[in-house]
Design goal:
The chain contains 11 helices and 45 strands. Helix content is 8%, strand content 44%. It is mostly beta strands and 982 residues long.
Length: 982
């Protein structure tokens, strides 16, 4: 990275510039983000652009060299390693999901507050969202042109507006790049998957006496992804760490034993790979691949009781331990979505006067992903007639002997095609702007004005998902006039083709077309648009006793809009449904309400809102002397009017003091920050998620045992009456920066405290049902769990401004650089960053719901400690880097009560559990590069050198029990590449 240091540094100290230039990353204290050229480095965090200004909000800077040394196919992966970023999402998260539409979406989350509370900018400008939640996709940025990334680790709403509650991540590109550069990268895991190929190139040139600047870049990235595995415990490749770790629910809350028992190899006992009779006198009879009946091998030495339960097993969520796991679908989900992205970027700038530029940028990008959420079709509860034409005669005879005409049946339907989810996001972003300086009233002023129009087109297609009622009709077969047909005459009249669910008998093409119409699978088409007009000014209108008083002010208009159309099978037929006439009427399906798919029931919807806002920021020098040092007061205020919720105010006030002690700076800031509800929260088209093994705590009859696992739909809807969230953010810090007695040393410590009120949140489906079961009638009207017909099982969830969050902790950063270490040429740099989360209290805001501290709950995103350490030797021709990543030990849930015997009563707020520890992780990465002359270099990297397996994150259902937002789930990765620079 080349940094030209002049005597006029805009918004950053010499120490910060040197840190960026020499180490590739610095804990910069300064800010103000708009202008960027070879003579100026402006660091995000404030709108003030005055020489020498030090902002009170901490800012971490990741420079070009660190980005290059980390050798990732997506710059997102490098930035997400910062300890202050907790809960970010990428290609390895969301792979278990069918309906979310967020697979492969790379977005940042600061302080564990969620991606929707982190404002991500490109050259200080807003970016159109890649999803209706309002977050952009980093995969769509022009990554080769990024010179550095500024991460503001504190509230910045007064300076930048809504969403900056956790902070700001600002990508700064090289707008004056000249020459040609390229990067080629290939990688593969130890297990022979996630083959990745990346090709990037950028070109820039100046014309017309250096007044016209043209920059072009393009990149292509293909990441093969990892998975899927198979049923049971078989993962992709030769990975062997999956053990189906589960919190088994005994169904007993008051018997002195723990209600939840931690165990490996949990075996669902309601279904098997090719079918299992799970209730009545024939309970325990399963079917092999040939359709031959056999006695199912239950774990825990269990024996079927004929009531749906199994002795020695766990009725609360219908599990045994061990036994035949061949039908458990958890391991069949992809570990990482495959991803393909194409990005094209162009910028033309013209200096119409000295220090004044007019420019236009165009960015066109497409990102495609693919994942498998689970294998087969998990159907734990259905009723089978003993007269079924495909049922073996042996079972028909057993039915007659037992005097029954039907039985309950569950199957993983391993003979069915595995569901597949495909997403395709296209983005078109256009920006036109003016920036520069002018003189007024005897002083210089800077300005930056731009208009942005962005469009995102998102398509989600799900393949090989069945229509629930058609599956039931097709699986109920009889013999009529010598032919096997569907029993229901209405179904037959509408094209029903029978299927054999007793064994590994793949449905015929015509049967599959009826049950899971491939061409008409779940589909969602979304269009999002964003329009932004912004103008900002800054200058020094006058001086006081300590120096120039700086002022920044400006305004912004923003319009956000979305429209979504879904297939009528999922959405129901309405005026918003395209080509609804192409979907023939079927009495078995709900043509008006939809929700006919087993998963992926997308809905239609639209919404928009407009924002008008203005801000004022001032920086007042208070002290400027050798005896007292230098101090300044920084304050800002912003008024914002939302068309949906009215006017809200944000403000901040802070100060920095360069003390008389050499290199020591004190800083502090407190702010009121806001986040307005996004389009999804306000106007979300209802989304329907399938819960295949939802724990129903209610008994089938009074005094009987809990029903246990059932299949249900979770209906999530928006709330147009939501109000903005309000946060109070306070930070206090001390910095030691390159004192003369240790010129290579930089240290910082920053304490943060965030209180967030009116948090837009929902209770989980499990909480809603459990609180009703425990007697809170307020929760009983929003669900129905009729175990006899899973199409009627549903739980409604809706967001409200109910919750409040409180989190606090501190950041530590240290770096040191030796020139010519041990007499060797070049430099050796060490750097370490750590974040400690003291507490993360979540208050649901509902009577009867206990507070919970998520700090140290490693099933989530906020471990007690998260560290990143980097050691680099660079001779100028050769460099070698060692990087360590560490996550501290934690728990599953801080509200669990651990006990073995003599346990207190277990409740929905404080469940008793046998074990509540979740180990942390320590990863080591190695990298090296070698230069051939001045223009060519080759490099290599090994991530997760010791192939550390992920730690189990136990659930209470059949999902893949890992936390990819916190742990590495892929294993060792080998990377190699080459860079050109002319």
């Amino acid at each position: 990275m080349k940094v030209k240091i002049s005597t006029h540094l805009t918004g950053v100290s010499l120490a910060a510039v040197m840190a960026v230039a020499l180490t590739g990353a610095a804990h910069a204290q300064e800010t103000a983000p708009q202008q960027q050229d070879d003579a100026n480095i402006v660091v995000t965090g404030s709108r003030i652009t005055t020489s020498g200004f030090n902002a009170p909000t901490p800012t971490q800077v990741i420079g070009e060299e660190q980005i290059a040394n980390n050798a990732q196919p997506n710059i997102f992966n490098t930035i997400a390693q910062l300890p202050s970023l907790q809960g970010s999402t990428g290609a390895a998260t969301g792979t278990f999901s069918t309906s979310s539409g967020q697979q492969g979406l790379s977005s940042f989350s600061l302080r564990g507050l969620g991606a929707i509370r982190t404002l991500t900018l490109l050259d200080g400008q807003r970016v159109v969202a890649a999803n209706v939640t309002g977050v952009p996709d980093i995969s769509m940025f022009p990554q080769l042109l990024v010179k550095r990334v500024d991460v503001v680790t504190g509230g910045a709403s007064a300076s930048y507006g809504s969403d900056a509650v956790g902070g700001v991540v600002n990508f700064i590109t090289d707008t004056r790049f000249t020459g040609f550069k390229a990067n080629i990268l290939g990688s593969i895991t130890k297990y022979g998957d996630d083959e990745t190929g990346l090709a990037q190139a950028a070109w820039g040139k100046s014309f017309a006496d250096d007044r016209l600047h043209v920059v072009l870049s393009g990149e292509y990235d293909h990441e093969g992804g990892v998975g899927p595995g198979d049923f049971g415990t078989d993962l992709a490749g030769s990975r062997n760490w999956y053990r189906a770790t589960t919190l088994l629910n005994t169904g007993q809350a008051n018997n002195g034993s723990p209600q939840l028992v931690y165990s490996d190899y949990a075996q669902p006992y309601q279904y098997a790979r090719y079918g299992l009779i799970n209730n009545g006198p024939l309970q325990g009879i399963a079917f092999d691949a040939n359709g031959t009946p056999y006695n199912f091998r239950y774990g825990s030495n269990g024996q079927p009781l004929g009531t749906g339960r199994v002795s020695n097993c766990y009725p609360g969520n219908s599990f045994c331990v061990g036994g035949d796991l061949s039908g458990a679908p958890g391991s069949g989900a992809s570990l990482k979505s495959s991803l393909e992205r194409v990005n094209g970027y162009g910028r033309i700038g013209y200096d119409f006067a000295d220090n004044n530029e007019a420019y236009v940028t165009v960015n066109v990008a497409e990102v495609k992903t693919h994942n498998q959420p689970s294998p087969g079709y998990n159907r734990p509860n259905m009723v089978v007639q003993c007269s079924n034409a495909f049922l073996p005669q042996l079972i028909k005879d057993r039915c007659a002997t037992a005097g029954i005409t039907e039985f309950n049946f569950g199957s993983s339907n391993a003979s069915f095609p595995d569901p597949q989810v495909y997403t395709d996001r296209k983005q078109y972003r256009f920006v036109g702007g003016l920036k520069g300086s002018f003189g007024a009233a005897g002083t210089d002023w800077n300005y930056d004005a731009y208009y942005e129009h962005g469009i995102t087109i998102s398509d989600i297609k799900v393949r090989d998902i069945v229509l629930g009622n058609r599956y039931l009709a097709a699986s109920d077969a009889i013999t009529l006039n010598g032919a096997v047909v569907c029993r229901d005459p209405v179904a037959r009249a509408n094209g029903c083709v029978p299927i054999n669910v007793f064994g590994n008998f793949a449905p015929s093409a015509s049967a599959l077309a009826y049950v899971a119409p491939h061409d008409n699978g779940p589909f969602q088409h979304t269009k999002l648009t964003q329009d932004v007009a912004s103008a900002n000014f800054s200058g020094n209108p006058f001086e006081n006793w300590a120096g120039p008083v700086s002022v920044a002010f400006g305004g912004e208009y923003r319009r956000e809009f979305y429209r979504v159309n879904a297939d009528p099978y999922g959405a129901g037929v309405s005026a918003l449904s395209p080509n609804s006439a192409d979907y023939p009427a079927d009495p078995l399906l709900n043509s008006q309400l939809g929700s006919n798919w087993a998963a992926g029931n997308y809905k239609n919807g639209r919404g928009k809102y407009e924002v008008y806002e203005g801000f004022l920021e001032v920086d007042i020098p208070l002290i400027n002397s050798d005896a007292m040092g230098r101090a300044n007061l920084n304050a800002a205020g912003r008024g914002t009017h939302y068309s949906t919720s009215g006017t809200v105010w944000a403000w901040k006030i802070g100060a920095t003091w360069d003390t008389p002690i050499e290199g020591v700076r004190l800083r502090g800031v407190t702010s009121r920050d806001v986040r307005a509800p996004n389009l999804s929260e306000l106007f979300a088209a209802p989304t329907v998620t399938t819960l295949p093994n939802f724990t129903n705590p209610f008994p089938r009859f009074p005094g009987g045992p809990a029903i246990g696992g059932v299949s249900a739909f979770q209906n999530t809807v928006g709330n147009p009456n939501l109000r903005p969230e309000i946060a109070r953010n306070t930070e206090l810090g001390i910095v030691l920066s390159r004192p003369s007695w240790a010129p290579g040393l930089s240290l910082s410590f920053d304490y943060y405290d965030i209180k967030l009120k009116g948090v837009v949140s929902t209770l989980s489906a499990d909480q809603i049902v459990r609180f009703c079961f425990e007697g809170n009638q307020a929760f009983c009207g929003g669900f129905s769990l009729d175990n006899q017909n899973q199409q009627l099982n549903y739980i409604n969830v809706q967001p409200f401004n109910l919750a409040s969050w409180k989190t606090s902790g501190f950041d530590i950063e240290a770096s040191y650089q030796w020139q010519q270490p041990l007499g060797l040429p070049g430099s050796f740099t060490v750097r370490a960053l750590g974040t400690h989360v003291r507490k993360f209290i979540v208050k649901a805001g509902i009577a009867g719901v206990a507070d919970i501290d998520n700090a140290g709950a490693n099933t989530g995103a906020t471990p007690d400690w998260k560290w990143l350490a980097i050691q680099t030797y660079d001779s100028g021709k050769f460099s070698f880097t060692v990087q360590e990543r560490w996550i501290s030990d934690g728990v599953f849930n801080n509200n669990y009560v651990v006990c073995q015997t003599g346990c207190p009563a277990s409740t929905g707020n404080h469940q008793t559990v046998s074990y509540n520890k979740m180990k942390g992780a320590f990863y080591v990465d190695l990298g090296a590069s070698f230069k051939f002359g001045d223009n060519i270099s080759i490099y290599g990297k090994v991530d997760n050198l010791f192939d550390k397996d992920p730690v189990a994150s136990p659930q209470t259902n059949t999902g893949l029990d890992i936390n990819p937002a916190l742990y590495d789930t892929l294993g060792r990765i080998y990377r190699i590449g080459a860079r050109l620079n002319f």
